[in-house]
Amino acid sequence: VLERLRNVALPSGLNPVLGPLSTGVGEIFRYIIRAPGVPLVEQRALQEWVIEPRLRAVRGVADLVSFGGGVKQFQVSVNLDRLKSYALPITDVYQAIADNNQNAGGGYIEHGDEALVVRGVGLLSGVDDIGEVLVSPRDGLPIRVRDLAEVTVGPQPRTGIVGFNDRDDVVEGVVLLIKGRDAVSVLGEDKERVADLNAHRLPPGVKIEPIYDRTELVQHTVMTVEHNMLEGAALILLILVVFLRSAMVAAIVTLVIPLSLLFAFILIDAKGVSANLISLGAIDFGIIVDSAVVLVEAIMVKITLDMARQENLNHMRQTMLMTAAEMGRPILFSKAIIITAFLPIFTFQRVEAKIFSPMAFTLSFALIGSLIVTLTLIPVLLSFLLGPRLEEKHNGLVHAMESFYRRTLEWILDRPRRVIGGALLSLLLSLGLLGVIGTEFMPKLDEGNIWLTVTLPTPISLDKAKEIERGVRKRIEEFPEALSVLTQLGRPEDGTDPKGFNNLEILVSLQPKSTWRYPSKDALIGEMNERLSVFPGVQLNFSQVIQDNVEEAISGVKGEIAVKIFGDDLKVLQEKADEVVHILKTTQGATDVAAEQQAGLAQVVIEIDRARIARYGINVADVEHVIEMAVGGKTASQLLEGNRRFDISVRMQKHFRSSVAALENLGVKSPDGSLIPLAQLATIKVDVGASRISREENSRRISIKCNLRGRDQGGFVQEAMPRVAAEVSLPPGYRVVWSGQFENQQRAMKRLAVIVPISLTLIFVLLFWAFQSVRHAMLIVMNVPFALIGGLVALWVTGINLSVSAAVGFIALFGIAVQNGVILVSQLNALVREGQPLHEAIVSGATSRLRPVVMTALMAMLGLFPAALSTSVGSETAKPFAVVIIGGLVTATLLTLSILPLLYRYFERNVSKNS
């Protein structure tokens, strides 16, 4: 990359450098300096030369951005009248300082037996030293810097200001994480260094105060996941005890969970896959232990029927071995089928791949681990810990369920057309819900904060922007829900963010929800939006810290929905953007709608007249050096204070550069030594130009951003996109592109539409391999669509949108539904092969498999039940996945136990007739 950057043709003085190896979500730690009575310039110096080097040295920190306060600077403020009196240009002052602040080496000289290094020391040491610098001799007298300018220490021109609560100006630091590093470990070391700085390295009374800490969100989400997992494991253990009537057997089965997770974590660590909220929250312990349940239940039934078990322990163990071998094939294929169902997730790309691939790896590895433990360790533990005591105890609940199911199944088998017709009708009605259920990429994760971007009208001065910033900050502080309010106006001095004084960003840390007066975060934001709308001309955009960065990384625009118009003419782009804004504002659910500000930047334009400068023998560069130095200020050199470096800036005093008339009097030195007023060399005027020109895909573009409240992304885009296409007429060469989070959803759904059928085909191949029968494979696959019924109804009832998380839930659901079909069909085939009549084999086989089928379904549902009901931080992402599986398993289990026996009878009868 650096090699290619060197080949780019750039204006002289511009040197491209690589930015920090961080990502849009790399901001992991924010802090301010609390130092009562310490000047802001000194606070900023402590930040840059004491705090920043210590925190930047932590492994995993990509960069540390300093914002606010005043950057210390030695300022040489030149008096134009004095320059004119000595007929000197400002460039001579600049050059004199640059030439009088350096050391030199003279090699060495021999002095006796020693070699002495020769050093010429000429570095400037302070304000007085700078004032003594010679600019030019005149009539035998020196003209020094102090004769032409005032030398002071002060802050460099401000490009941004940070406010915090009731303080109008503070110093802030933002720590950026290197891409791929663990935020928790990096922040742990950072906080240790902060404690050390506060205790030992900073002056008395100066403290670092954390404002935003990513570990708080991580800890809360981890606590949510741990809580849900523990509750799910407890519910599974309860189900095992109720159905198996043995605490010891239930404990042995439950042992599969930690061992499988350990196996999975070892493999994902070896593969370098990092666990995330989705991958941990989507772990369903019920799916992990279901194979062990099926095996244990089969062993208990076999041993109970084996009357010789009491007299011969070896015979009992032989029975266990035979049962494990007999059940090994269907268990192996059932796990292979579930893992195959996850195949579409492995094909995800970009954002969705980073979110969901760890989940697919974690679950797949855990299922492999559970398969190994189930077929090896479980039979051994049953044999050695329980021995002859292992038998099926009478279970009144199971007996009652089996009696009721037997009667129900007889009724179903007598009315095949009604049952199948009712199931098909339910499936069609549930598919109709797709037109009602909203769609989105991912549910919003509540980060516990609000990130508000306020775009002020342009042009605007720093003082006016500060006035609005104070007003906005005080309005937000009036909300009891606000724990703290941090504001960032403008941009940091390092130039990493090209924003102007019209950009105000606000971080609002929130109190716990239990103390709120509002029922939801959307309600709180709605009230904030109403109270802040009193400021004229401002545009508001409500988001969250991570969400805001992710949205900008996805589309380059800070908003959930982004509409980009590409073309050449900035005026046409602005006109068409205004038309799109009007359409979006009149579409239900739209909020925070605004077009990118590209015009309205007030400028003082100095047009150099080449004919005039040629008459005086002056070059364009000579004029521009004066403009750059006199108006903007230019660093001539740096002054060392110990290991600290501070710029020495040369600039004209304020009243000599604050108006067009003042600029016209600036002098440019000609070859004959005379000063030519700038008015004689250029035309100076005030104009309005573009504040920014955005480019993408080698073309100019303007963007319109939009957030949504009370409406899903997919439905909004489906309504707004045709309106924009119909109502906005674009000239030739112009085009509209829709972007944002819904773009990720569409890409993921399109990929699923291709890969899911392939995955089902592979499942069909596995089923054929397992049963050596096309009809049995087809029979089980035909059961899969009925799993959609409960999942779609569950989404509709709970009001949850169909997201990629929910789609992944459907994928997992298909695998579980197929597994239940494998369990049932395997038993029916076994009884038919034993010679039982078809009807009797179906009734007795389905009834005997009722307990494992119901147990596995209940465990899979209850394992995710806490995640479906949780309202804690981080629960939003796993909830669609959990709701889909719980709802889908209800109908999938019911229909597996009713429709599948019917279809089995139909297929087997046809085979018999053909035979």
Radius of gyration: 37 Å
User: For the record, what is the CATH homologous superfamily label of the domain at 396-436 and 773-915?
Assistant: Multidrug efflux transporter AcrB transmembrane domain
Count all strands and give the number.
Answer: 26
Please identify the top-level CATH class of the domain at 396-436 and 773-915: Mainly Alpha
Return the CATH topology of the domain at 396-436 and 773-915.
Answer: Multidrug efflux transporter AcrB transmembrane fold
Span between N and C termini? 71 Å
Q: What profile does the largest beta sheet have? A: 9 strands, antiparallel
Outline type: elongated
- Assign a percent range to the helix content: 40-55%
Q: What are the low-pLDDT stretches, counting only 5+ consecutive residues below 50? A: none
